[in-house]
Amino acid sequence: MLKIRLSRGGSKKRPYYHIVIADAAAPRDGKFIAKVGAYNPMLGKDNEARVTLKVEAIADWLKKGAQPTDRVARFLAKEGLVKWEHGNNPQKGTPGKKAQERAAERAQREQDRLDAEAAAKEEAAAAAAAPVEEPAAVEDVAAEEAPASEESTEA
């Protein structure tokens, strides 16, 4: 597979790129088939010499099946050779299947914990209200037992 890509040149902190046709398996700055342009990022964006392209040669390579990289496709789109759309792959940042499963388990554990806390609060509220009623019930039972014992003594 052929790629139209950048090959870095220039010295340290002074980049200069050649736009080359290369095999996809070749290293970035390694063996290439043809030079079809240049890119000098040190020049201003409005400078005409920032990007130079051999348009006819690039068009021929595109017909032969060469695929431009993203950065080169931007340059070629300005010349009208290829269509390039701004934007990234929206699916790239989504978590994998295992990570989604772990997140679902974590959310379930958190929901169970919140449900248990709510149930504990309800029980505590019921327990706080119930002891007030229980002593009255104990006194009623004691009061009922007392007349019954009196009745048994009378008989």
Helix content: 40-55%
**Percent of residues in beta strands:** 15-25%
* Ends apart, CA distance between termini: 113 Å
Global geometry: rod-shaped
- Mind summarizing the main beta sheet? 5 strands, mixed
Q: In terms of structural class, how would the helical and strand content be classed?
A: alpha+beta
Number of continuous helical runs: 3
Instruction: Provide the number of structural domains.
Output: 2
Order of helices and strands: EEEEHEHH
The order of strands across the largest sheet is 4-3-2-1-5
Q: Uncertain spans, ≥5 residues at pLDDT below 50? A: none
CATH superfamily of the largest domain: Ribosomal protein S16
CATH architecture of the largest domain: 2-Layer Sandwich
**Number of beta strands:** 5
Radius of gyration: 40 Å
What CATH calls the topology of the largest domain is: S16 Ribosomal Protein, Chain: A
